[in-house]
# Entry
Amino acid sequence: MDKIRPYSMALDRLRSAGLRPTRQRLALAKLLFDGENRHVTAELLHSEAVDANVRVSLATVYNTLHQFTEAGLMREIVVDSSRSYFDTNIDDHHHFYFEDSKRLSDIADDEITVSNLPPTPGGAEVTRVDVIVRVKENNSQ
Amino acid sequence: MDKIRPYSMALDRLRSAGLRPTRQRLALAKLLFDGENRHVTAELLHSEAVDANVRVSLATVYNTLHQFTEAGLMREIVVDSSRSYFDTNIDDHHHFYFEDSKRLSDIADDEITVSNLPPTPGGAEVTRVDVIVRVKENNSQ
DNA sequence: ATTAATGCAAAATCTTTGCACTTTC
DNA sequence: GAAAGTGCAAAGATTTTGCATTAAT
# Structure
């Protein structure tokens, strides 16, 4: 009884986010939330779905990623102006961005220190602080 | 003889970057580098050029911004996946991003402290560390 | 004259939309 | 069966490209 039950995990997650558990959403949630945290583009997730024999259109993948993000199940990371990344890790954290392979990896919040933030102009409210460490693999490629 | 000579400033800047000082590049350099540091999109710079009666196409503005960036005269800031921003400030620094007005403002390097950076995976070389403080004006708009 | 830059329109991305069809509740 | 979600193709938006023309050295 202590076995992981991924299907119902995804189901519960959708239910508590107020999203109808349709076949497409369940399949995408399974790809996204079963296992480790991940960083995906719409294109990547769509091709994974197709590979897994899930019939879903790219437009629906876009919609779904935005719905998951709005529902607080994921967040969007902006590192490359030509494509959007979505992260299943919604805890406070930061990123390495590998410019060659165009991949992301997490930096936990306690692995980095940002201090001395100046006051925001006009007392604007801080939505989020993103630290992006851009790196380049200087070996291959 | 201590007067500012913006035209030749732009000229010298282009010359030392190895870029031919064409009419379009000179005009754009003038818009960009005369005065305070600025953050521009291609669209914005193009419309400023048109307003200033400079005949230049949007494609050339894109090309020019990229050439200036490659030459180290500017740098690109990624904060919004739907548009590219270019910054005339090439010193180490960070940014506030106003999500409502879609505008940027600089945070000088010494106004913020990033410490305890973890080692890069595989010893990859750090290209740049970007801190983006996303803010929302909670008054108007 | 040679070489580089420009303009234009067309193509290439990536992302969103409109609407008929399908699925969930 | 009412309401919400999906697919598809088409439209949008931003950025890039190809090539003939123009300008800089």
